Here is the input.
Amino acid sequence: MLKIGSKIFDGIFSEEKRKIIESFTIWTATIGFIFHLSLVLLNNYSIINIGNESLLLTNPISAIYTPFSIILYYEIFLLIYFLPRSFTTSILKQFEIISLIIIRRIFYDIPKLDLDSGNWFNNPDNLQITYDLISILILFFLIYLFNLVKSRIENRKGNKSINQFIDSKKIISITLIPVMLCLFIIGIYKWYTIGMDSNFASSFYYVNEVFYNTFFSILIIADVFILLLSFLYTERYSQIMRNTGFIICTILIRLSFSSSGLTNLILIVSSVLFGLLILKIYSLMNKIE
Here is the structure.
């Protein structure tokens, strides 16, 4: 059963298919950017009338939001691909995804900036983008440190039990693929139905956030299953603590989607900082063991 699941995983995520999906993502993101930009320009010059309730349809800078959204779906695909490798690689990909989500939000919020006000910090939109920019710098540096610590941890040679553990994680990864596709299809349907009653741009932003909220909730469950499986293959305290700590990081990221403003950013930065400290302590214990 494990070998069959492993072969299915290897077939889905073969290098050839990943390159095809990567190429498709780049082309789709480019076309999406051009299409979104065209809609904004046609709307602004009154050639078509799709409303001006949202900055996503009135400001050209907001067009960058669309290709970033498409690229983020590809990053989710890579997260599923990296999940069987190790908890460390998987959580690193989560950190990268959440940082890209913040960058995407910056492009969404830039048109809201009030440059005419006498005091920059009196405007909540100005404050939000300031917090986002500072947070991105902090996250980028923390992710660099996480990569640095990760690269210094000596990889242990694979054995039969570890290979079985990897095969088990591949099966869990496979189950996430239809879940991701279902969430994507449901998201498009809700975007259309909500957009028909209100505003397409606002519903797009809302549905997009709901997708990540739901996906990371399911990812927590997948991580818990992997943690339980790990007890069958390792008794090392440091490894169990590392894996448990990384699940806490995922929970903090999930909680960030249910919050806004400064609380949202504090949860995200705390997640990455906690993950970095967990990995650093794990690397120190590795030397002792």
Observations:
- Residues 140 and 242 are 21 Å apart (CA to CA).
- Residues 13-288 form one domain.
- The chain has a mean pLDDT of 83.
- The chain has one domain: 13-288.
